[in-house]
Amino acid sequence: MRRFDPHETRAAVAAGALLIDTRTDGQRAQQGSLPGAIVIDRTVMEWRLDPQSPHRIPEATDADRVIIVVCRQGYSSSLAAASLRALGLRNATDLAGGFEAWVAAGLPTTTGPEDVRF
Q1: What is the pTM of this model?
Q2: CA distance 31 to 3
């Protein structure tokens, strides 16, 4: 799996990729949010993103769509992306270095309303 750096992630999202933030409420409250990200708890991520699931989010209809998972440092997100690939989402990947790499690259964060999906 080729992992994306922060700038590749930003460009992919601008081109239509789904950006999935799996950080906890506490982490997001302390660190900030990612503009354009959909927040999905890691424990329900697979059935929310699987196009075959009756519980998927509306955006998860195409197994070929690029999905980029983000966690705090890029460790759990790589495992999450591998899990999505095992479901057949062949373009699932993650942000190498996680949210911390995003911030280190000088990319914007927000404290505004989040798109949280349960």
Answers
A1: 0.96
A2: 22
| Cα 37 to Cα 21, 58, 62, distances in angstroms | 6, 14, 18
Residue environment code for 86-96, b if the CB has 16+ CB neighbours within 10 A, otherwise e: ebebebbbbbb
Q: Exposed, middle or buried by CB within 10 Å (0-12, 13-18, 19+), for 77?
A: buried
pLDDT in tens, 16-41: 999 999 999 999 999 999 999 999 99
**CB-facing half-sphere around the CA of 6: CA atoms within 13 A:** 18
- pLDDT of 118: 85
> Phi, psi at residue 109, to the nearest 5°?
-125, 170
